[in-house]
């Protein structure tokens, strides 16, 4: 792997971290002002993960009903009546139980390019736009200032309240009533997380829910405006909605929808099905991207993220997620303060370090206040490397400065690993306990992923190989 850097260049390659044991001591260096550089790529490092199909169930597995029960049958029957024939007797899909809980399976061999399910936005899906039947509610609200999740939650709850309409009732009745939602973690379970960023995210989402209680509770009928009803609606849309572009007055507009049938599919990093909106048919469609055998479970992707969104929105943690990351500094000021303490670097060099980090930030179009992280695949935040390199002695070569910056990141990972209450091995042993609650089990899986990110960067096998053109 190479890193190509100079004051005049804007090109870079991956930086692998140096080999070290978890208890290794990284030599301190006296820091002075050094160079400025741009490193393309928010993260730089040496990817080493194997390409595997990472699969997990979504919030469907939290449903109180049995798999393939009467609610599923009613939903499939309704979809067939709406000309969404994917789940009909002659269709290509069926709902069943697999290794990952409730899921969707191929009824027959499906060829690449075949459309297996087509959902009408007008007659089947629920969109974050108020329907004609909601005119009275919409006119009483300032919905123009509402975010998508408030609009879609309101539309879903109004559908529940409309007892006179059988439209979409089968879908609403099929939705789970209980979710593995971190917002409902107990205080004792919150302490098991061990990583501050997730706790902060949970607290922020709790505030979002509380604000929604006030807005939706005041706007909706009393029968569906309670905090419990609002919680259910928000849990549903955050775990099951899709973002698509739908024409609105001619221009494509980002729109969130609930897509009955599509949301029964579980998640994989390597799905066999693609989904998109087809403007010529007005439908949200599922299309095969590869050959699928009969009775094979079919998957979609919920997106490519680190583990935080999966846990926060869907209540699960993908196994061995190669895209997971772990925050090692909340912001640049914390990183610079740590470097000054650990390496006795001069605070007089901080303005130059900030300049280098901000240059990389602008190159990557990211926010200045975004956390600084390391990745599961051995990657390191380029802004952090640029800032730390700027604190190294000016007389050192560019290679030496970047090497010391990467070593500092490595030591930070070692430090964080040693500060945690449990080790990876201890977490693995805890997972073998049959007495764990579902919440604690998923929390342990989550924190193990973060520790793997730290360990990957702390014990990377490669030595630095930097070439300056």
TrEMBL record:
GO terms for molecular function: protein-lysine N-methyltransferase activity. Keywords: Methyltransferase, S-adenosyl-L-methionine, Transferase. Residues 91-303 form the SET domain. The keyword Methyltransferase applies. It holds the Pfam family Rubis-subs-bind. It comes from the Eukaryota. InterPro entries: Rubisco_LSMT_subst-bd (IPR015353), Rubisco_LSMT_subst-bd_sf (IPR036464), SET_dom (IPR001214), SET_dom_sf (IPR046341), SETD3_SETD6_MTase (IPR050600). One of its GO terms (biological process) is methylation. This is SET domain-containing protein. It comes from Cymbomonas tetramitiformis.
């Amino acid at each position: 792997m190479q890193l190509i850097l100079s004051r005049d260049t804007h090109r870079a390659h991956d930086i692998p971290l140096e080999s070290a044991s978890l208890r290794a001591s990284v030599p301190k260096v006296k820091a002075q002002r050094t160079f400025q550089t741009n490193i393309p790529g928010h993260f730089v490092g040496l990817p080493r993960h194997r390409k595997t199909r990472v699969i997990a169930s979504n919030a469907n597995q939290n449903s109180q009903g049995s798999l393939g029960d009467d609610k599923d049958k009613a939903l499939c029957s309704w979809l067939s009546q709406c000309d969404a024939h994917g789940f009909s007797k002659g269709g290509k899909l069926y709902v069943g139980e697999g290794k990952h809980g409730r899921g969707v399976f191929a009824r027959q061999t499906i060829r690449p390019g075949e459309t297996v399910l087509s959902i009408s936005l007008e007659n089947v899906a629920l969109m974050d736009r108020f329907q004609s039947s909601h005119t009275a509610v919409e006119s009483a609200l300032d919905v123009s200032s509402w975010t998508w999740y408030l609009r879609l939650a309101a539309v879903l709850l109004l559908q529940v309240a409309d007892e006179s309409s059988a439209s979409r009732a089968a879908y609403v009745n099929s939705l789970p009533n209980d979710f593995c939602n971190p917002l409902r973690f107990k205080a004792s379970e919150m302490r098991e997380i061990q990583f501050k960023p997730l706790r902060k995210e949970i607290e922020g989402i709790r505030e979002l829910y509380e604000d929604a209680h006030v807005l939706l509770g005041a706007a909706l009928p009393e029968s569906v405006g309670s905090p419990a009803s609002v919680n259910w609606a928000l849990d549903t849309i955050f775990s099951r909605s899709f973002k698509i572009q739908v024409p609105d007055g001619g221009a494509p507009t980002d729109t969130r929808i609930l897509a009955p049938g599509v949301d029964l599919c579980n998640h994989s990093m390597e799905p066999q099905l693609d989904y998109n909106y087809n403007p010529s048919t007005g439908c949200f469609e599922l299309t095969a991207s590869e050959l699928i055998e009969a009775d094979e479970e079919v998957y979609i992707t919920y997106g490519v993220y680190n583990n935080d969104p999966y846990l926060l929105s869907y209540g699960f943690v993908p196994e061995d997620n190669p895209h997971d990351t772990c925050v090692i500094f909340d912001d640049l000021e914390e990183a610079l303060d740590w470097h000054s303490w650990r390496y006795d670097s001069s605070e007089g060099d901080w303005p130059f370090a900030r300049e280098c980090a901000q240059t990389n930030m602008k190159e990557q179009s990211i926010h200045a206040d975004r956390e600084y992280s390391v990745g599961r695949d051995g990657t390191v935040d380029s802004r952090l490397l640029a800032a730390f390199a700027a604190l190294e002695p000016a007389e050192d070569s560019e290679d030496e400065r970047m090497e010391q910056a990467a070593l500092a990141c490595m030591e930070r990972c070692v430090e964080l690993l040693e500060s945690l209450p449990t080790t990876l091995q201890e977490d693995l042993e805890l997972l073998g306990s049959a007495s764990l609650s579902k919440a604690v089990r998923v929390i342990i899986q989550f924190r193990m992923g973060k520790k793997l990110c730290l360990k990957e960067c702390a014990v990377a096998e490669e030595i630095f190989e930097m070439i300056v053109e």
